[in-house]
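Format notes (please read before filing issues)

Several people have asked whether sequences and structure tokens are stored in separate files. They are not. Every record keeps both together, in the order shown below: the sequence lines, then the token lines. Line labels are part of the format and must not be stripped during preprocessing.
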Amino acid sequence: MGNKRDLENLKEELSVTALKSIPKPLLTWYDEKRRILPWREEPTPYRVWVSEIMLQQTRVEAVKPYYERFMKTLPDVPALAQAQEEVLLKLWEGLGYYNRVRNLQKAAKVLCETYGGKMPADYDALLSLPGIGSYTAGAIASIAFGIPKPAVDGNVLRVLARVRADERCISEEKVKLAVSAELEQAMPKNRPGDFNQAMMEIGALTCTPNGAPHCDECPLQSLCKAHALGKETDYPVKAAKKARQIEDKTVLILRDEGRIALRKRPAKGLLASMYEFPCLPGKVSSDEVLRFLSENGLKVLRIQPLGEAKHIFTHKEWHMQGYLIRVDELDRGDRSTSLRDWIYIEPAETRERYPIPSAYEFYAKELSMLRGRNIFLEDEQK
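Then the structure lines:
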């Protein structure tokens, strides 16, 4: 038993020793190649926090306009804590994963109640806030406060797996914890924030997840075991993803002479409190749609198929078909039935109010609404 433990300790020591060779060439590369980003140029705790939450599973270029608008509207922790829910959701519209912004506000309220509206310069205190995990806490602690704590995300795990030809499965939480502990021993104490950002940057720009990485541009090429073996794309090792649940639905784009119909989703669950077009479960024929609307008191003047669309969530896929439907008057429907939760607005109102999920982007184009672009990733690239 003792020999086994000694062998494990030796492996860990060798692993940490290998990591200690990374900071010097990496930081030299970062000083020359780093992107100029608004949250980097003014890395206050609040700005770093908001940017890191926005950047989760979202491209940097897509985040920039959202970040600038968010900062202009909610420039500090108290403003975030006091914001109305629809304002928050509208600011986040198109970024997806809306629980992120709800947790931002929950944490802001805790900060106002406990820390005077300021973020604490303490890793464990940051980690205790709603929506802040070890990665975000490490990013804020290191970048905003100079505390030497690692920020380990998919980018970092991929880079280190390739550098060390690490066979461990990065999908396992115990592996992520072990890598974080190893990296903490190796990271430079004088530039922890720059080091964490450099690790993220090289994963985003050079040691990329899809296709062959750009090894000729990588400052860690001479240290990389996977490159030496010619097996860069064999790393990192990941567990197979579970199949997503498929949900069919029919989207109804209903309008009369000047208004459209929307309805608010439930306060809990997927896309909570967002607004959506009325939908019917399953793939429904035009005759069935006409029957449904007629039974609810709406006189249909014209119905036009809009084609099919698909939207992928983390654990679910929506397979949608849609219809553009012109009716005589929207509010003539029987409000005591399944239409009672519908609201009727002018399409232009969705530009400033009524946050609509990007899942409906394909159909929202029919109404010339201002929609976000397709900005989501299935990998960790930023």
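For reference, the curators noted about this record: The domain at 2-234 is CATH 1.10.340.30 (Endonuclease III; domain 1). Residues 94 and 372 are 5 Å apart (CA to CA).
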